[in-house]
Amino acid sequence: MRRHAPALALALAALAAPGPAAAYMVYVSNEKGNTVTVIDSETLEVVDTFDAGQRPRGITISPDGTELYVCASDDDTVRVFDPKTYEQLHTLPSGPDPELFVLHPSGNPLYIANEDDNIVTVVDVKTHQVLAEVPVGVEPEGMGVSPDGAFVVNTSETTNMAHFIDTKTYEIVENVLVDQRPRFAQFTDDGKWLYVSAEIGGTVSVIDPASAEIVKKISFEVPGVVPEALQPVGVRVTKDGSKVFVALGPSNRVAVVDGETHEVLDYLLTGQRVWQLAFTPDEKLLFATNGNTNDVSVIDVEEMKVIKSIPVGQQPWGVVVAPE
Amino acid sequence: MKRFAGPILASLGIALLSPLGAMAQDAAQPVRAAVLRVERGPELPISRLDLPPDDLGFAGGRLATEDNQTTGRFMGQDFTTEDVDADPDTAVQALETLIADGTTFIAVMAGPDTLLALADAAGDRALIVNATAQDTRLREADCRANVMHVAPSRAMLADALTQFLVWKKWTDWLLVPGSHPEDALMADAYRASAKKFGARIVEERVFEDTGGARRTDTGHVLVQRQMPVFTQRAEAHDVLVAADEADVFAAYLPYQSWDPRPVAGSAGLRPMSWHPALEAWGATQFQRRFERAAGRTMRPEDYQVWMALRVLGEAATRTKATDFATLRDYILSPAFELAAFKGQKLTFRPWNHQLRQPVVLAADRVIVSVSPQEEFLHRVSRLDTLGVDEPETTCDLN
Question: Do B74 and A115 touch (CB under 8 A)?
């Protein structure tokens, strides 16, 4: 029965379009403020702020919406919060200085990049045990998981590779060399493409996961913006794969890329140092964190327009939206 | 025999190791480099906190080799770096020994004359990376086709500081060079930089090094009398800029100057390639990795040697090759770029082989700013607002 519920909701949403967006809770980690800001996606107002430990960065939520995970980088731990009460439930062993992580599509385990130790730590979120530590390249950062959960992809910032880790054996099965300082790895929902952003290289590599080959490198160009400011970081793809959104850091823009042709369609002006992105489950809205202007830009996905800027805590870094 | 080992292994490696996914350390292709250290800077600094550690530069090289090796593990490449100490008289012999052993990529920590002697001795048999010599002339009249410069030039350091001072509108300077030849060169760089960015040197005073012990018990008592007198009755100025590469007096200027003015240059606000307080652009992890390995904080010399060897690592990774000609050609090509915790890619200026790089402006415990300042525009790259630019260069590499 449960399986049909989301499908039904989607179908209803499609019928009702362009009706009012459903209300979701949006959680923003504020790296310098040591807090998480909670935003209501319908009113686009801040509803609450709670303490999240030292230097919260990576943030994600369990598929059932009951556990909110926050990388508290300077506490060397992952803090787990109740997304409704904001109470800390427990912590997870993360290894030192956790920055980004990804949950297995089933909700367990959690794969954490440990920049200091050149390893990816695999943690069981139920038993709170470390299942494995996988040695990867220098300064592991971005974490992506294939939709079938077979592979976790880690990017290493100084080695400049996307490492494909088999989630059963914890062995690296492929290494794809990408451009300088790869930051983020994002699969399409159908698993056809893997996007890897390279902050310093200024490109997003489009990788065919089946062959582990780069089929295209997306580059960016904005008149009047120096090329070195166009630094791709966070990447999100619509469920149908038609649009890819890329946060371009200090250029203060989010690029919209066509998911078929991989050509840039538009650049949306955001706040300063735009960093990470998150869709609402209905994909009507995309939230983008702006680290240097202490706000979140709200993007209307259909219209490809920034519709609002919401002040949050100091140096917003990561963002996640609660599921349906 | 040794000479042939490289190419044979390399061809075996290519056959065995493609595709990239394979991890076969057994047949890894060797990539050999050396750090040739001839100079370590002032042996007797005026602050005991600045005493040069024994592994200055070498420690940065070790971290780079480790970083290269981590990537090499995935690429089937095996990086080794030899640390060699020499003095100016034995440096060329040390170079010959390295080349004879098949090491063709050599990071050099040496003064300008030794560096040129090494470059001319190496010819087209090796690539020299200048890791520490800041002399602008090595990038200009005395430039060499087989030398890459990862150390910033004095011109770049001066421009980095000047941009910030001009941005602050601290445009009237009291310039205080020391009496050593390097101090005069740094003062030249400040004069040129002031002219370039619109600052005025309202007065210059040379601080004579009269010798004597650098540090004595209760030295501050004398300093507290000496420095105010030395800086007394200067023309009205916004900032005191000191050029004291020999480390004789500049550190004594802050708080001791007659006029209550900030000090910059060799003390106070200092332009540097690296500072252990830098945390931006992922530098924290890099600092920690270094500190864990070396047991101390990272100095500019360490960072620059790290960059020198990362240049080699990057070339080997990108070309998937280990032979000298392929690596050298790639490093010299426009495709080469290096990520070095400065927030943007670093590339070599094709006209003189200088690595473009942001310069850190640091006070004692924190980063004050990083130049280039964004208000200074450039038609090619803002980084080219630092140092001698292409239209002005006197370097002819051909």
Answer: no
Provide the shortest C-alpha distance from residue A15 to chain B (in Å).
46
Nearest Cα of chain B lies from the Cα of A147 at a distance, in angstroms, of 22
The answer to whether A175 contacts B21, with C-beta atoms less than 8 Å apart, is yes
**At which of B220, B250, B272 does a domain end?**
B272
Q: Name the region of B29 (left: φ>0; alpha: ψ -120 to 50; beta: rest).
A: beta
Residues of A in contact with B284 (CB under 8 A): 97
Q: Which residue has the tokens 């803090």?
A: A79
CB distance B226 to B196 below 8 Å:
no
DSSP structural state of residue A22: P
Residues B28 and B148 in one domain: yes
Q: How far is A238 from chain B (nearest CA, A)?
A: 29
Nearest CA in chain A to B314: A159
Q: How far apart are CA B216 and CA A231, in angstroms?
A: 51
* Range(s) of the domain holding residue B145: 2-152+275-357
Q: B244: left (phi > 0), else alpha (psi -120 to 50), else beta?
A: beta
- Residues B128, B206 within the same domain: no
Domain match, B173 and B258 both? yes
- In tens digits, chain B (398 residues) has pLDDT values of 333 333 333 333 333 333 444 444 457 899 999 999 998 766 788 888 989 999 999 999 999 999 999 999 988 999 999 999 999 999 999 999 999 999 999 999 999 999 999 999 999 999 999 999 999 999 999 999 999 999 999 999 999 999 999 999 999 999 999 999 999 999 999 999 999 999 999 999 999 988 776 666 667 888 888 899 999 999 999 999 999 999 999 999 999 999 999 999 999 999 999 999 999 898 998 999 999 999 999 999 999 999 999 999 999 999 999 999 999 999 999 999 999 999 999 999 999 999 999 999 999 899 999 999 999 999 889 999 999 999 999 999 87
User: Phi then psi for B82, rounded to 5 degrees?
Assistant: -100, 130
Which residue in the set B20, B67, B318 is minimally distant from A175, CB to CB?
B20
Find chain A residues with C-beta within 8 A of B23's C-beta.
172
Q: Of the candidates B242, B272, B302, which is a domain's last residue?
A: B272
Q: A180: nearest CA in chain B?
A: B339
Q: Show residues of chain B in contact with A113, CB under 8 Å.
A: none
Same domain, B9 and B136: yes
Does A160 contact B381 at a Cβ distance shorter than 8 Å? no
B39 and B11, same structural domain?
yes
Q: Same domain, yes or no, for B279 and B137?
A: yes
Domain assignment of residue B364, yes or no: no
Say yes or no for a CB contact (<8 Å) between B20 and A177.
yes
Q: Which residues of B fall below an 8 Å CB-CB distance to A?
A: 19-21, 23, 67, 70-71, 74-75, 282, 284-286, 288-289, 317-318, 337-339, 343-345, 381-382
> How many whole angstroms separate alpha carbon B290 and alpha carbon B297?
7
| B150 CB-near residues (< 8 Å, 6+ apart) | B129, B130, B131, B304, B307, B308, B311, B355
Distances (CA, A) of B267 to A288, B166, B258, B363: 42, 18, 16, 8
Q: How many domains does chain B have?
A: 2
Check which CATH number belongs to the domain holding B161 and give it.
3.40.50.2300
Q: Quick check: is B362 in a domain?
A: no
**Token couple for B280:** 């931006």
B179 belongs to a structural domain: yes
3-class secondary-structure state, position A146? coil
CB A56, CB A36: distance < 8 Å: yes
Distance from CA of B162 to the nearest CA of A (A): 22
